[in-house]
Specification:
- The chain is α/β, with parallel strands linked by helices.
- It contains twelve helices and 32 strands.
- The strands form four sheets. Strands 11, 12, 14, 15, 17, 18, 20, 21, 23, 25, 27, 28 and 30 form a 13-stranded parallel β-sheet that branches.
- Helix 5 links the parallel strand 4 and strand 5.
Length: about 575
């Protein structure tokens, strides 16, 4: 357990280094509370739209949000916050600039005037960004949700009211509160030839279109006794909710694809985003799964999992079909159940009950996710339990010891491409037909790579194509497979077998009778562990690959072909 946990920590620590080695572009954001990062403690319902931007870009874009609550263009400069950004700008970086809410305030430490001091500060941001080789983008302020003539609307920004006086007077039309402060970013953008995004117009249309009641969901309107962060409730017409911040960020990104064409190829749209830092719709993977509509046919639901270690048990039930779970670098789902561990009722969990993740829904797709069980060497401890047909895993990692990957579903087909699986004993096991293409299978100790329990009459069990079998230093005597059930099937094709693979290759699980029923075969394997002359006699070498094309193994009765049609599973909007 200690070794695995340390390995995960090391992986996460390497992420910043990995990012700097790529051609990473930074988007710096400067602005006020409507844009700023907000804490997640106490189920805080407030988010800034700049906080949500990372979930809309590819990983070569890094969002560095410097927006701060209560700041105007003046106080942002006077407090040295702008200088902290300016010195970091590299050629090719972007600076997104949005001020106005607090420039309107009477407070002399924040107040500026449109047409003069406000414009001058915006020019400074633009010119000093360009002097560093950066690319400025100007935004005007998002709309306040103001459906009545509230004379205190500007001052209310600094309050977190439980109730807003005058709500009984709300009409059907939004009333502007920003005035000429909306024009300054537009005018400076035209004057200096800077990309401009009219976020006020877009948010005005959104809020007006939703109407006075429905639009409350975009802002921090929170009933009393529902949230630890504001137990008495809150009626806030300026600051955005989680939903509102995501909606506004989406509007901003869509506009950016036109205003800044160079960013268009880096923009991604996911149905949901999971992020531990609050930059998504949900803080946990399970909450995102739960939000997927049941039996959403003919459409995929895409879920981005941002970097972080998500310690939870994830269950994808049968009704949550057509999910694509996409992990950014360092997205780890982790838990520590094991077979003999006691559950809440005092019973042993059992092997099946120990898994970190359970997948039951058909047409599930995962990419870039690490599934880990950190229980250690305590017996059976499953990282991923897959009882789904047409399940496709790409560039995923499965970390554990005994019984790491449970291909549970009878009659189900699973495809693993460019994945990594590690463990000790029987760490790929179960009933399903499973293809492993260009995967790495890593032994942590002496044991057995696979333990198929293929049903009698089932044409295929496990088929490995062009995989690498590796091991920790000093490990030896590892069998390719042993039969958990008598009719087990495992075939290794063009695989590179390390010297840790036992010469006999196969194990009969202590039952001579299994040798008569198993199907164990190899084809053109290489490496120190490829020793056909020393293999146990009940294994054999294939003469050709007739009947063993990937498309044949996985076709079933519906012609499923993830190799040919795999990208269609992702369906990420660009």
């Amino acid at each position: 357990m200690k070794r695995l946990t340390c390995a995960l920590c090391a992986l996460l620590m390497l992420l910043p280094l990995a990012a700097t080695e790529q051609d990473t572009i930074t988007i710096f954001t400067i602005g006020d509370s409507t844009m700023a990062n907000k804490p997640t403690e106490g189920d805080n319902p407030e988010r800034g739209w700049g906080q949500m931007l990372p979930g809309f870009f590819t990983e070569n874009i890094r969002v560095d949000n410097h927006a701060r609550n209560g700041r105007s263009s003046k106080s942002f400069i006077d407090e040295g916050l702008w200088e902290q950004v300016r010195i970091r700008i590299r050629p090719g970086d972007y600076v997104f600039i949005q001020f106005g809410h607090n420039d309107e305030k009477d407070d002399p430490t924040r107040h500026t005037d449109p047409g003069t001091t406000f414009d001058a500060n915006l020019r400074r941001f633009v010119e000093e960004t360009r002097a560093k080789g950066g690319i400025p983008v100007l935004f005007n302020s998002i709309v306040r949700r103001n459906f009545y003539d509230n004379q205190n609307a500007v001052a209310d920004d600094d309050l977190r009211r439980e109730k807003v006086e005058g709500t009984s007077l709300e009409g059907d039309s939004l009333i502007d509160t920003h005035g000429a402060y909306l024009d300054s970013p537009r005018n400076v953008a035209a004057e200096l030839d800077v990309p401009f995004v009219d976020l006020n117009r877009m948010t005005h249309d959104l809020v007006q279109g939703m109407g006075r009641e429905a639009s409350q969901s975009l802002y921090c309107w929170v009933p009393a006794n529902t949230c630890a962060a504001c137990p008495k409730g809150r009626q806030d017409n300026t600051h955005l909710s989680i939903q509102g911040a995501r909606r506004v960020a989406r509007l901003a990104v869509d506009a950016l694809s036109e205003a800044v064409p160079a960013l268009k190829h880096c923009i991604r749209h996911y149905d949901f985003v999971v992020a531990k830092d609050g930059s998504g719709d949900f803080l946990t993977v399970q909450d995102a799964i739960n939000a997927v509509p049941d039996f959403r046919k003919n459409k995929r639901t895409t879920i981005l999992v941002r970097p972080g270690e998500y310690k939870e048990r994830v269950i994808v039930p049968e009704c949550k079909i057509n999910i694509s779970l996409i992990g950014q670098t360092g997205a780890v789902i982790i838990n520590d159940g094991y077979a003999s561990k006691l559950n809440s009722l005092g019973d042993e969990m059992s092997t099946s009950g120990s898994s970190t993740c359970y997948i039951y829904a058909p047409d599930f797709y995962a990419e870039g996710i690490t599934f880990a069980n950190t229980a250690g060497r305590v017996g059976q401890a499953v990282a991923c339990f897959v009882s789904a047909d047409r399940a496709y895993f790409k560039a995923c990692r499965f970390l554990g010891n005994q019984d790491t990957l449970y291909t549970y579903g009878k009659g189900c087909r699973q495809y693993y491409e460019d994945c990594y699986v590690e463990g000790t004993v029987d760490f790929i096991f179960g009933w399903s037909t499973a293809v492993f293409n260009r995967c790495t299978v890593h032994s942590l100790s002496k044991g057995y790579l696979t333990a198929p329990s293929t049903d009698k009459g089932q044409k295929y069990g496990y088929v490995f194509y062009d995989c690498k079998m590796t091991a920790e230093p000093g490990v030896e005597g590892v069998a390719l497979s042993r039969p958990w059930r008598p009719y087990a099937k495992a075939v290794f094709i063009r695989c590179n077998l390390g010297g840790h693979i036992a010469p006999a290759g196969w194990n009969n699980w202590g039952k001579k009778s299994n040798e008569e029923t198993v199907t164990y075969a190899e084809y053109q394997n290489t490496g120190e562990g490829a020793r056909p002359e020393a293999r146990a006699p009940y294994g054999h070498q294939l003469k050709d690959l007739t009947g063993y094309g990937i498309e044949e193994v996985l076709a079933g009765t519906d012609g499923w072909n993830p190799v040919k049609n795999g990208n269609a599973l992702v369906n990420i909007k660009r």
